[in-house]
Every structure is written in C-alpha cells, then in structure tokens.
Amino acid sequence: MKPFFLFLIYLLGGWAAMLPAAADVPVYVWQHWNDSISEESLERDFHILRTHQVKGVCFNAGFQMERIALAARVAKREGLEFHAWAPAMMQPDCDSTWYAVNRHGESAYRRPAYVPYYTTLDPHNPQVVHWLCEQYARVAAIPEVDYVQLDYIRYADVILAEGLWKKYGLVMHEEYPPADYCYCDDCVEDFRRQTGIDIRAVSDPSKVQEWAQFRCDNVTRCVNAICAAVHAQGKRVSADVFPGPKRHAERMVRQQWDRWHVDAYFPMNYNDFYLRPASWVGEVTREEVETVRARWGQPVYSGLFICRDWRNKANVVDPENSGLTPDELREAVEGALRAGARGLSLFSAESMTPEHWKALSETLERWHH
Ligand SMILES: [Zn+2]
Predict the structure, then answer these.
(1) Rounded CA gap, 325 and 315, in Å?
(2) Backbone Cα Rg of the chain
(3) In angstroms, rounded to a whole number, what is the distance separating the alpha carbons of residues 188 and 58?
(4) Count of other CB atoms within 10 angstroms of residue 14
C-alpha cells in the first residue's frame, strides 16, 4: 500500500477515535475468508472497520487454522476483538456414517436437503461431538482468538424461513420430511429407550412433542460440550442462532438456545427472510433479551442483514440478496437497542455501503444523547 494512503487511514483512524463513545454500543461485523485475502488486504479491511467504531470481527475461515491465526493476528493489531466464526454441523468431508438421516431413511451425506452443500452431521453421534470439541479447542488455542463462534449449530431447517419458500418452490406450513433429521438407528433406539416410542412407527412424527425435545436436547448437549472444551482453554464462546428461541429457532432448527452455556448470542434477526419489515427486529430482539434475562443474562447482539444493492431492493426477490436499506437500518438499530440488545452485528462487512455506515453512526450518536 502507498505510504500516503496509509497516512490518510492513520489520520482517519485518529479522528474516529476522538468521536464520542459510540463504542458504548458494541458493533460487530461478519466477514468471510476468500482466496484474494492477504495480510495486507486484512489490514486495510480491519482498519476501515476501526474507523467506523466497530468493536470486533466475526471471521469465517472454517477450521483452517493458519487462516484463522493470520486474521486473528491482524485483527488484534488493529484493536479488534476476534471471533473465530466456524460452521459446526455443515461439513463436507467427515466420515460418511456421521451424517444425519432423514425421515425417509436418506443420509444427508448422499442426499442433502435443499442444496448440495447441506451435508449435515448428526449431533446425537458422540464421535461428531468429540470431533467438534477437538476442532473448536484447536481454534481456541490460537492466542489471538478471543471467542470461537458457533454457526450452523443446529439441524437442517425442517421448516424454511417464509421468504425462501418461493426460491425453493416449497410451501412449508408443516415440517418437511426430506429435511427432518435424524432417524438413524442410534437416534431411533436411544429415543425408544428414553420414551418407549418407536418413532419410525408413528404416522406423523412432527406431532410427537418428546421427539422434538429429544432433538433440541441433542443440540444443547453438543453445544455445552463444545463450551466446556473452549472454556478449558480460557476462551469464550459466541453463537449465531435463529431468532426466538420460541418464535423460530426451536421449531425450524431445534435450537433451544437459552439452555446453552455460551457467553454471547448473535441471533440472526434477518427480517427480509421472514417477509417482515425492519420494525420486526425490535420485536424479536425483545423476546431474545427477555428469554436470556430469565436464564443467565448473556449479552444479545442483534444480527442485522444488510442489502448491499439497496437502491435496487424493490427488484430483489431472493432474500439472500436483500436486507436492510440505510433507512431501514436506522429503524432496526433503534428497535434492537430499545429492546435491550447489548449491541449489534452486521451481515456483512462487504455489504455495508457508505450510506449504511452514515445511518449507523447517526443512529448511535442519537442513542447516546
Ligand atoms: Zn442419528
């Protein structure tokens, strides 16, 4: 990078540091590894985040230890908290017997639901839990990692968010058998031992409350084992969860996440996925904050999905390319903070336009005064 440009960034950083403390509301961003990333590009990206008063980066390099170590080192140098974000259950190349089996008896390894990459592991399998504990513990052992961040820590969506129905040509008022897991011999047998119910003999398993609870408990047990492994390294755990937990997380992906021993929640309150307006972010954040408060009171960082091509939002039909415009971002941020969110998380760093950053900083300034 040219020295002059570096100097300019330095000045901007200094100026940003003198602004009144928008840092009272911690802001995080999610960012993915990609192959064009280098130490220099990370330095540039992370420095810009600091000028926008961002507190920390949630960085996804999976379980690629060298990439995590590089990003974490640069993040710490730039003064950012580092969350090593890594998907748990969605894995491409584990032992083929570790994958979940759907209600039709099909393995997610051979016939994943919805899309080819939905190859999801069985959280009831002790070998899966052990392997995940090992992976996250290795990540936690990297000195500059502050948190490991659990993502895809759930079953496949047995019901998709309503905004995705059209995309996949599905209407999902009820559970979708090809994405209903796990009916492997071990799960079926363990459930029968616990409850006396042979779930394969039940005509509509979605009506069996104990069966839903069994799956929620499998995820909770797996999460809490990972938390113990990470805490043993003196590090903390954050988790990317579905909104709720009652409203969506439990029903859609078996996340009873208020029972988890994690240290921070980053619920993905992506209103456009649920065909809801920005005002919904405040509503759902309130449920999350109140649920957590009744348990252990961990902080909730309301996760917001940003529309990069926001001027063209009216023409975007796929929620995965939609999200909040700058004006909607103002409303979502205010709603989340009023509902008691400790802070915010933005998906993603790359989607934030100058107009979004301006809307964010103005809203936070107003919040403080
Ligand atoms: Zn199973």
Answers:
(1) 13
(2) 21
(3) 37
(4) 10
Domains of the chain, first to last: 24-368 (3.20.20.80)
Say how many Å lie between the CA of residue 178 and the centre of ligand 1.
14
Q: How far is the CA of 254 from the centre of ligand 1 (A)?
A: 14
CA of 177 to the centre of ligand 1 (A): 15
Ligand 1 mean position to 107 CA, how many Å? 10
What is the C-alpha to C-alpha distance for residues 215 and 211, in angstroms, rounded to an integer?
A: 7
Which tokens belong to 216? 């929620």
How many A from CA of 101 to the centre of ligand 1? 6
Place of tokens 């909607």: 328
pTM of the model: 0.92
On the question of pLDDT at 11 being above 50, the answer is no
Give the residues across from 147 on adjacent strands: 83, 236
Segment 65-105, tens digit of pLDDT: 999 999 999 999 999 999 999 999 999 999 999 999 999 99
Q: What DSSP string runs through 88-142?
A: SSB-SSS-GGGB-BBTTS-BTTTS-SSSTT--BB-TT-HHHHHHHHHHHHHHHTS
Cα–ligand 1 centroid distance for 228 (angstroms): 23
Q: Report the separation in Å between the CA atom of 100 and the middle of ligand 1, taken as the mean of its atom positions.
A: 5
Q: Could you give the CA distance from residue 149 to residue 155 in angstroms, rounded to a whole number? A: 17
pLDDT surpassing 90 at residue 9: no
Task: For residue 49, give the 3-state DSSP assignment.
Answer: helix
| Interval between CA 211 and ligand 1 midpoint (Å) | 12
For ligand 1, the distance from its centroid to the CA atom of residue 187, given in whole angstroms, is 4
Q: Are 139 and 148 in contact (CB under 8 A)?
A: yes
Determine the distance separating the centroid of ligand 1 and the alpha carbon of 40, expressed in angstroms: 44
